Input
Amino acid sequence: MDLLRDNDLIYGRLLTVDEPHLIERYNKALKAFGLKPTKLKSFDIDRTGFSPQIAEELGDLQYLDPNEVNRRFIILTPAQAELPVVHTAFSNTSQLMFEFYSSNRRVIDALTIKDVIYGEIEDSVSKVEDIEDLLSINQVEFRVLSAEDVLGKAGELGALVDRLKLEPDAWRDTAMLERMVDLAKVTGDIRENKLVPDRVIFRHEAFWTSHFGGIYVFIDKDMTTVISDPAAPGFRRSRPWQVSYLGIRDAERVFRFLASTGRLDLPRASWIETSNYLEHRAEMAVRALIHRQQPNLDFDKVDKVWLQTWIHSNADLINKDGIFPFLNAAKRELAQTGKLRLEDMEPERRFLVVRARPDHPDAWLTNRLISDFVPDDFVSRYVFNKQSFYKEYEAWPARWRAHVVETLKTTYLKDKAAFRERLYGLKD
Output
């Protein structure tokens, strides 16, 4: 993973924590979670407060996610809102955290001046034992604490202020007034600096989770759809009138579901020709085929001329694999008719010529699912499905790893927003 780390392809864009007072606050949160305080003088954190260096120090990658449910968080600064989430069991953790920051910005701004905010994203289960446990999570609640109990003291001070306003003789209670002064020394003027979160409950929308080898849950008005390995515990166990279960390898039914629910951008010349989508898919397929045939090849010498020469020299292999000719035929058909006849294609190959509908709320999740059916496109895997990408990366030989990293650097990392907009139609 060092090569990925050195090129900001893993644990990139994190916030460095090296100020003693912030490290002290972080340690207070760790102690509150029953964890050992860090001895590090510097470490990086993501939006949730997760630190890869502290995970390594503790020997526990799940130190903020012990049961891969009810995720913990540590907030040192409002600046964390702009960071990525680099380790999570649920794909929507990042969005839930962002909504929490956005809904409580004033409170977070005020509290982090004096204290560290920590807690859990609580839901209705404490441990996931089957799919039904996942389906029972309809909403989450942020249980918010602070090391110096600034939140609790602000609440107490607010109650005393109300009493002072409502009870005519309350101003005669010297002990109460002294308590208010002591509390105000910690909280400041709560009339100016609000210290209680405005919103802590959020909807748990469509998501992917790492449980049971990876499960997708899509939510529509009248039906929830689960896509997973049929061997996952609870698959097709209950509520057939409310829950539809699809096998993750059932390309026909998965594609039909995505298309019928309006989650797919079906192949049209209007977006495919301007995005070079088919050209991208074809190049990814050819590079993967070359790697399988020549696993020790030095890809430093591979350029477009070399690729064309290899394709012509290996025509039989290319035709047997079939993906490159299929994509070329699709390109010709689009140029002639402006669309493709999906019903004439093998179900698995339909995923090569579609993307998620960019304006659908589930666009990122849908692109992630599509990438499961196009594993040779390591760029799409990296953009939308980093957990699977990192797992596959571990098994690759060094030269292929170097080639993948170089390709991601010169394509995606060069301008991520522009790349996502051109290829997938996504606007940040």
